[in-house]
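Appendix B: complex inputs.
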Amino acid sequence: MSILSLDQPGRQMLFMGNEALARGAIEAGVRVCAAYPGNPSSEIIASLAGVAHDLNLYVEWSVNEKVAMEVAAGASFAGLKSLVAMKHNGLNVAVDFLFNLAMSGCKGGMVMVLCDDPLALSSGNEQDIRTYAKMLDLPLLQPSQFNEGKEMMRFAFELSEELGIPVLLHSVTRFSHARGNVTLGEIPREVPQPYFDTSQGIFPKPIENTHPALHEKLARAGRALAESGFNEYLGPEAPELLVVTCGSGVLYTKEALVNLAAQDRVGVIKLGGTWPLPQEFLLEHLKKCDRILFFEEVDPFVEDNVKALCAQHGAEVGLKTFLGKAGGQVPDWGENTPDVAMKSIAGVLGMDYEPPRPAEYAEEAAKAVADMATFRTLGLCAGCPHRASYWAIKNALALDGRDGFTFGDIGCYAQGRGPSGFGVMKTMHAMGSGAGLADGFGQLTRFGAQQPVLAVCGDSTFFHAAIPAILNARYNNANLLMLVLDNSATAMTGFQPHPGVGRNAMGEEAPVVEVSEVCRAIGAEVVELDPFDLEATTETIYELLQDLDGIRILVLKQECALVRSKRQKLMYQVAIDQEICRGDDCGCNRFCTRVFKCPALIWDQASGRAAIDEAICNGCGVCASICPASAISREAV
Amino acid sequence: MNSQIDPRNVIITGVGGQGNVLASQMMGQALVQEGLVVTIGETYGASQRGGSVMSHLRISQSEQWSPLIPEGQAHLVVGLEPLEALRVMARYGNPQVLTLTNDRPILPLDVIAGSADYPELDEILAKLAHFSQKVWTVGATEIALEMGNPIFSNMVMLGAISTLELDWFPLRADEFKEVLQLLLPAKAIEQNLEAFRRGQGAVNEL
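Resulting structure:
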């Protein structure tokens, strides 16, 4: 029994924001759920997959976000309620379909959870995807609390079904990956008969019909949002400042006002629906005060749209002083926090806010941490096969000597740009872009380019977006070495299965699609190796680089160390022979720890020799082949 | 301690892979079952890759607070790793903070590579004592290794927390068992409960 399927209406649970949204979808009667994993959105579909059998849902990990959205829309076209969830980058992948879908409309309630990641805590870039709602003419909801998120989800499904258009629900890391109280509701069990009405098609055209109809639906959505109860005014009737906020900003603003003891001076307009704006509600409360501070994350989405509303209704609301991102009172990038809210609001009110601790303490603690607490540089895990792959690439490129280099991609192996991947990876953009960039560089031999070019991508990224670029390389005869680092999992986002692993989201057996077979089918030359065999891997890469005529593909296959360690802690018992390791007296200058950089292979200050940290070692045994003195031994477990 | 203060703020901190998130979830669920309102904020973007991980728990009688603790407002810091306990003092520490920490270091990548130093444990503990009202240590990793897997150290630490006798923090063994039953597969419950019990007897006041 998962906590998500507890049939105990009224019970208080501590749910992650993503679980609150998943539970809301369940209580709304969702039947089909699809996504490609991507943090901070992954747990929405992952948690639904865990209860799919209990609750008679269909849940899938799709190969990418566009397909996931199409899967969900397919179910909606047949009248079922469907959910799709994705991170900001994923929406960019799916958005071509979405613009068509917005205009064609859907049937069964269809909700899309779109997660931003301010400050890119687990992403390659930062975006604010709320502007898409305006471009798409689709309604947008922004939950600020956990139970509210669950209730909004139910509302969103009703609204979508009523209007026949998808409804967007926006989350951020501090909602999705936070936890809070949720009150469980009823779980509906009835499943409507799926049926595609063949008497009419579903098309985005003719535009003269669909676009005006969409605008009319959006206006109805605006009225429904205004009456939903998700917008609220909190504060005195005659405040000296109005804060307009939404999403994560709501709790930060509340915390700031308590800390500043300014609840009696400042009014808060909390918006739950941010597109279209609840116009009547806003116009009523904006009259309360002429100083308006917008407090939201990343882009001035609400700020710009409320300003436009005020301009439109200038005669009614009068002249306002707007404060926010445009005026420099609120940061226009990165994450907000309660401290950022305090600074912004205190600044606007002309107050000084000092944190409740002595300034000397803060200074002293900051200094102690700066002096003593070395930053934890991110790196590959102990036993990670990618470390072995990058070690082989690094050495093969050095051996080759033509200043060859590697285009990179998205996943755990993106650590290839850092110290634990020896700086091998030189670019990181969108999913599959490493292969595409290599396609481009691989054409430059005709202009005299001398450097051999490599690209890496993971197994899940291969299925998601690298296949078209690899196919393109084959077709256009780009000269490159494509390395697929196949660790049999979407490890970065929580080990979700993909077409290569033989299991689907709901834990059922599935056909295995082999990376190497896909590559051979397009006519490329493919070699498959275990990267833990450092010597063979290095030699093979070197040899393939000597004859780069068209695309060569090397699949380096070894299971993710964390996935394996759940089943079997160690492949090898690794030990340092204290007799052979001469420590600082060896001419190697701590080669094993200085260069290889495995978290479990450490330097023992006391003995002045290398040592294995047994609490961390995952027993891959690779380090046994790197010690110049052969002091590291391994024994199969 | 003044039990009128609301919310109470707890930070659980450690290194990716130590079970920080699960520990905070279990603690939070136990408190919700006591009728409290809890918010937890997690910072674990790429935590499985050896980074610092932090969970912020906001514990309230009545209100949902934000998932991030403001500067200088931690009441209790729980370190699954000693240097991480020290690290949070820079932003969240104050002279009244209580600190409970595992005593087993995990070396950062730059220390392994030889380009930075890891302080002596005694030095870290002395600093923690300097920045805290009170410090307790637990040999959590040692206990977990005795049990056969370092992953149990987070449960050992939860057991240790349950003995601190903070009036605002009602985490008891029988209640904890219920939470384990709710959140873990049946086969994992006994060992985790055992780790919790061992932690109850392993707290050393500095």
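The mean pLDDT of chain B is 92.
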